[in-house]
Amino acid sequence: MKILVSADMEGATGVTWPADVLPGTPQWERCRAFFTSDVNAAALGFYDGGADEVLVNEAHWTMRNLLLERLDERVQMLTGKHKSLSMVEGIQHGDVDAVAFIGYHTGAGTEGVLAHTYLANSITGVWLNGVRASEGLLNAHVAAEYGVPVILVTGDDLTCEDAKGYAPGARTVAVKDHVSRYAAVCRTPARTAADIRAAAAGATALAVRHTPVTIGSCTVELEFDADHLAAAATVVPGVAPSGERRVVYTSGTMYEGIRTFKAVTTIVSAAVEEQYG
Question: How far apart (Å, rounded) are the C-alpha atoms in residues 91 and 240?
Answer without folding.
Answer: 30
